[in-house]
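Run: sequence + pyridoxal-5'-phosphate -> complex structure.
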Amino acid sequence: MSETGSSPLMQFSNKPKAVMVSGRGSWLWDEQGRSYLDFVQGWAVNSLGHSPGVVQRALQEQAALLINASPGYHNMPSHRFARELTKAAGMDRAFLCSTGAEANEGAIKLARKWGGLHKNGAFEIITLQGSFHGRTLATMAASAKPNFAERFPPITPGFVHVPHGDLAAIEKAITPRTVAVMLEPIQGEAGVVTLPAGFLRALRELTTSHNMLLIADEIQTGMGRTGRLFACEHESVTPDIMTVAKGIGAGVPLAALLARAAVSCFAAGDQGGTYTAHPLMCAVGSAVLHTIDQPAFLEHVTRMGAHLRKGLGELSQRYSLGSVSGAGLLLALSMPQPIAAEVTDAAFDRGLLINAARPDRLRFMPALNITLDEIDRMLTVLDSALGCTLRK
Ligand SMILES: *Cc1c(COP(=O)(O)O)cnc(C)c1O
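>> structure
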């Protein structure tokens, strides 16, 4: 713990003093030996909990065989994973990379390239208020968050922001320059903000009728998080471009840009990267996909999500809080006052990790293989944390 005070590591946020040293399933331990029930899970990343056996085995087996061949040569795990992932997603082509921002940056490039080839040079991308698409210069410009891209002027051009969940506003923003609409099926970083029922399907029709691309950022909602493999499936929508990250690697850096064949127009030299199609990460990707893309597994997510939602609803009633939003195991609880950070601190003191997505909203993103008992335990601790905060 003494190490962290004088550490040269750049810090961008206030963290609790605890130093995490080990994890197993839904539990984390710090260097003092304190245990924490983890409903943050690497920011909706550790889809199978901490240090799952399938990931350990995939890492060990692949590491013994080949860690990295260079993107200049073919490797087996990347071709296998690309085949499995595109099939599961109903897409045709995959670019495999390391982070969500990298996948989204690639999606923006692919849409611009397609616009240049097939839509008279159209390049503009419409995004929704509150959206979060990453922390590179272009993905920050795509993100319609107040005081975000403005921090690093000049802002990358080519993005138009419209109100969230407003189809008419999107239609009004379309010009001959517009190439795509890019959106999250559920906005995670904004505090788990859902779209009206039928919106995605109507947007699919609108974009098709204008010969525009639909880009779904499934980085937080994909890989089983909402009870379907991808959240677009809830409305039977297939986008033209889909990005996936976070849960896809269950804790290791892995991300994917997926595209329909007609849109997949990168030419030699257009795209790449040192760690693209990395065999070690792709081996993990296959192991994770095999685990998650099973009817029984996804059904478990739906059941646990319903149980968590019910429990949060009961706490909301008891303490006169707000609504529960989200789907599957990506849920948020609204507070009538900006007390989310205080509740999060009180929970931390009681050995529970939750996230204050907004000053007045708690977010829950547990491991997808969480158990009923663990959810009940979380609800008991949250009850105590809420009671303590609201009595103050
Ligand atoms: C986390 C996230 C990103 C960025 O992913 P990184 O891996 O942090 O670059 C982009 N879009 C959404 C919806 C996210 O939740």
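>> summary
The chain has a mean pLDDT of 97. Residues 99-101, 104, 132-134, 184, 188-189, 217, 219-220, 245-246 surround pyridoxal-5'-phosphate (CB under 6 Å).
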